[in-house]
Amino acid sequence: MFKKILKSYDYSLIVVYFLLCIFGLVMVYSASMVWAVQQLHQENDFFYNKQKINLILSFIFFIGASLFPYKAYISKKFIGGIVLLSLFGLGSLFVFGHISNNAQSWIKLGTRMIQPAEFVKLTVILYLSAVYAKKESYINKFNKGVVPPIVFLFVVCLLVAVQPDFGTAGIIFVIGVTIIICSGMNMKNLMKLALLGLMLAVIASPFVLVMKDKIFSKERMSRIEVFLDPFQYEQGDGYQVVNSYIAIGSGGITGQGLGQSVQKLGYLPEPHTDFIMAVVAEELGVFGVAFVLLGLGFIVLKGIFIGMKCKDTFGSLLAIGISSMIAIQSIINLGGVSGFVPLTGVPLPFISYGGSSILLLSIAMGVLVNVAMFVRYEQKYKANKGEPVPEQNKSTQLYRVKY
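^ Probable peptidoglycan glycosyltransferase FtsW, sequence as received from the core. Prediction below:
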């Protein structure tokens, strides 16, 4: 039995995850060595050592999540527990929150910082997947099957937005919408939800006008201005974006060589975080960028494929939700670095420096690997023995295929 389970794991998914994490660790060291010395007066491997500890801890959680049966997460006690814990974490920021980059989004524990909103992303995926898996028989009853999950999503997004962290709130909202669309809800109720969202926007408009100075602060509006014309503000708010362009352009096909970036020498602020892809492009050129894009693309597409093949609604929605989370974060980060979208401070999955981000992503990847294992196990062994395999759920035929 145990050997069959081990044989059922998708090792290509595991290998790509590990390769991206190790590549990210190398690039964090390369991108941060000068910043650590010049700005923090630390050793050049300061961020490297911290990220190494983050990765070791993350690998442990990844292994645990990949071995733990994902179907156990659907229990009311577990879902209720993580929902309460997530709401408590977000609420505690108003009391114990540490302000950094004009946002009260972190809780300081000794020398380390934890960002509760990062973990809320996975909570939303687990909660919505469990709710819609249980609500299949009445999913299209608006008051009973549609409204309650939407209220939870709205409350979570609101708590994150008021920190203020509109980037993370937007990501959580899009992840939730993706799961809702894939849940099998009929078009009539989807249209009702769209109208409900429009009504809430109209109702909230007076509040937005009253709080416009805080919501549309000078810093946030400057991000829009920089997005429209970064070179006009290259000595101010556009400094980081312009230097990112220079880094990307100077990399060429083969790059300047690992460790040979010029922009990380003080021209590109905090190059080991949101703008690490600019350093990858400068040092390793098109080949380095392609490695990251292909790795992220493989995980996202593989996750979607797993969701399509999974016969269990809960597992299917989990795979879709985790894949969408990685895809959305990657698109927003790469769009900000290349100037296609305004800057939001979203890290690049598996590559950027950050403890909360890599820990969340590792747990999510462990869950995805476990879902993939169950799919392959049922396909290889139950089908071969003639054991009944669960029928495909009608509610998820929108995106799943038979095999």
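Residues 2-185+217-396 form one domain.
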